[in-house]
Amino acid sequence: MKEYKHFINGQYVTSQSGKTFENRCPVDNSLLGIIHEAGEAEVDAAVKAAKAALKGPWSQLTQAQRTTLLNRVADRINERFDEFLQAECLDTGKPHSIASHIDIPRGAANFKAFSETLANHPTESFRLDTPDGKGAANVGHRTPKGVIAVISPWNLPLLLMTWKVGPAMACGNTVVVKPSEETPATTTLLGDVMNECGVPPGVFNVVHGFGANSAGEFLTTHPLVDAITFTGETSTGEAIMKAASVGLRNISMECGGKNPAIVFADCDLDKAIEGTMRSAFVNCGQVCLGTERVYVERPIYDKFVKRLKKGVEQLKLGRPEDEAANFGPLVSLEHREKVFSYYKLAVTEGATVEIGGGIPDMGRELNDGAWIEPTIWTGLADDSRVVREEIFGPCCHIRPFDSEEEVVELANDTNYGLAATIWSENSARGIRVAEQMETGLIWINSWFLRDLRTAFGGAKQSGIGREGGVHGLEFYTELKNICIKL
Ligand SMILES: NC(=O)C1=CN([C@@H]2O[C@H](COP(=O)(O)OP(=O)(O)OC[C@H]3O[C@@H](n4cnc5c(N)ncnc54)[C@H](O)[C@@H]3O)[C@@H](O)[C@H]2O)C=CC1
Ligand SMILES: O=C(O)/C=C/C=C(\O)C(=O)O
């Protein structure tokens, strides 16, 4: 039976309490192994190891040496690609075809991208005139923030964890990661990679457990943690923000979304259908950037609904290793219960179920898994819960619109503000509408096209702060101003 241990100060350790919990595969609910649950003692040991490592050999490395080390980590992830792929797909149930193109390559790339950004980032400098005529020079100097707590979710486990660990380490910080209780495997494996690459003990630590009254809470309330970066649900973000307020610790948060796609009649329909199929259904709809509200200009509305339904009919549900499969289960039975409750609510709220809406019969071997049908609704009111709340499943509601002004208002009528997608061959219109979106990210004629040098994050209740490229520097470093009187 596989055991997922904590990784503290370069070693795999179990919990003093002996407490464990099960890790199950969402494909068929089979038992994958047991996860050791960290108590306050393990979290304290991990944070203290991270604090001590800030003053050890890690702090002696030059930026160039850190870059070399992190490039080695990226290369080693790629060399052990199949192990990471297997681990990720067993934990999440996602198809190999998806994880091998998105999760694992990005997991490695996240260690390379930020080192390069840092190497090319200029230092701020201002010359100040003074009454004696000699002046003064101000020079910006960045130092690591310290111990960074990384709280990561289950939807893109390696990708989203390394998206934080990569820049944190590139900036010279040390980290304690609390991966989601649903997906412990790739984060645990990364500890071994860190050792293989010669990352000093204590720089990268992992503690397993849940949120409230468990590892997540113990970590975010630990007084030696200097900053907290989180991806997950908005209400969890609120709890973490409260914890961070003690000691005025810095936070970076990327939370939920209820993202709109706006499809104008002048779009390239093939591209809009292909893009919306991905944005609504890839990863079983479990992507924070995913589309759950689709607004289609009336002249092409009927055609769009028909073609999107056809796309859904062609999705191939199957085991991760099935090469033809492009649609897996949800992450857990618990999450399926939540998503399915929205499927039932949609009917109560008066939706027309265009396709899906149920739990598929996958056959005896898979029926215990967390499978759910990809689903399209039409006909819901704008104030229905299904149109307003984040579902985080493979589903979307499609509604017609008649004017640009109307659709801008509809798209922005939400408490969230993470991402929006616009489909139009009229670039002036695309840009005009994009500028009016109250979201942190807007894609025109594409979706999830990522350049790691760009700012990433949400407006409104979708998050606080921006990570990516130089923007991460604000969170992962302390900017000091050194004023030199000449
Ligand atoms: N990227 C996103 O926007 C994501 C959104 N979700 C949404 O959140 C819903 C719930 O999924 P969960 O996995 O339960 O998300 P969550 O937000 O509760 O969990 C994310 C991480 O936060 C940790 N956590 C939870 N409570 C905490 C606390 N009080 N202090 C410190 N850490 C804490 C969890 O253990 C996990 O590592 C999903 O149904 C989905 O709608 C889930 C994952 C990612
Ligand atoms: O590309 C990224 O860095 C992130 C993508 C997706 C999420 O953040 C998410 O689904 O939570």
TrEMBL record:
The gene is hpaE. Residues 12-482 form the Aldehyde dehydrogenase domain. Gene3D superfamilies: Aldehyde Dehydrogenase, Chain A, domain 1 (3.40.605.10), Aldehyde Dehydrogenase, Chain A, domain 2 (3.40.309.10). The keyword NAD applies. Belongs to the aldehyde dehydrogenase family. CDD domains: ALDH_F8_HMSADH. It is an enzyme of class 1 (oxidoreductase). This is 5-carboxymethyl-2-hydroxymuconic-semialdehyde dehydrogenase. NCBIfam families: OH_muco_semi_DH. It comes from Paraglaciecola arctica BSs20135. GO terms for molecular function: 5-carboxymethyl-2-hydroxymuconic-semialdehyde dehydrogenase activity.
